[in-house]
């Protein structure tokens, strides 16, 4: 079975299901397909439903939470969490036309590179060790969102309409977080496979006059992905920091007050399947780290050929050096925030700090009430 084709088809149909993109990719024919009218109507309807319905659900949830949360700091943190969900859904919806247009241009260019260059290197090996983690991320996404949808349907059947209303913005936030991390990681892994072919090409001393041009174009494609996904990934990371802090606070409250009704915090994380998004976030940062490592390794093996004494190779290395100066090898957000393991540990540290602060204020609130 062609796992590349299976993965891309899964991504395409899952993206259409969530209304995140109108693009369809045919990797066998190296071309993009135009979706039919029904798919366009569905995607537009999905976006409009988020734009119209989520503000109401957020306002309704805020009113309900004010009854349960007594900690003033936690109230503001909860308000910020819900507002971030509103922001992330509006960013996702309003950037859809521009995002699809830019991704279409990106795919047209990369498919042209694939057909004109890499299709000639079918005999060369390539690094595919990341694919199993993409499959894991896809399973995490599908399982997590399916459980939330089932919870919403169960609440509707039981006529627990308030709970269903509270879970709807959670579903939208989780869908955007999962899917954008999965899409971005899939495209980065595809570029990593292309880089690995260049790496093995150089190890086999297979010279090609287009080598420096192709390497430069791959670095450029990474920069273009940074520009395309920066708004969405920035909102996702901010939302994860705030949401995870509130989740940590809610877990503490559940252990602190055993008789507390745990379902009052369903709007925050749903159930224990929330661990899926945390694991997905870790694997996403790991994949970004692997891609950056592959870039550096490929660059190092290219520079090793300088000592070969070949004037043609030296000319190629000069071109590669120029491309390295023009196109950065870093996966980042708006050219400022890198997406790597260091950034992940910083996010974890900030989350723990905010959670600790919420817990301290809660304990102080209990002490004041006790006195």
TrEMBL record:
Keywords linked to the UniProt accession: Cell membrane, Membrane, Receptor, Transducer, Transmembrane, Transmembrane helix
Compartments where found: Cell membrane
Keyword Cell membrane: yes
InterPro entries referenced in this protein's UniProt entry, alphabetically: 7TM_chemorcpt
Top-level taxon of the source organism: Eukaryota
Classification via Pfam families: 7tm_7
Gene Ontology BP terms: sensory perception of taste; signal transduction
Topology of this chain in the membrane: Multi-pass membrane protein
Membrane-traversing stretches: 6-25, 37-56, 76-96, 133-150, 170-191, 228-252, 272-292
GO CC annotation terms, alphabetical: plasma membrane
Keyword Transmembrane helix assigned: yes
Function summary: Gustatory receptor which mediates acceptance or avoidance behavior, depending on its substrates.
Family: Belongs to the insect chemoreceptor superfamily. Gustatory receptor (GR) family.
Protein name as annotated: Gustatory receptor
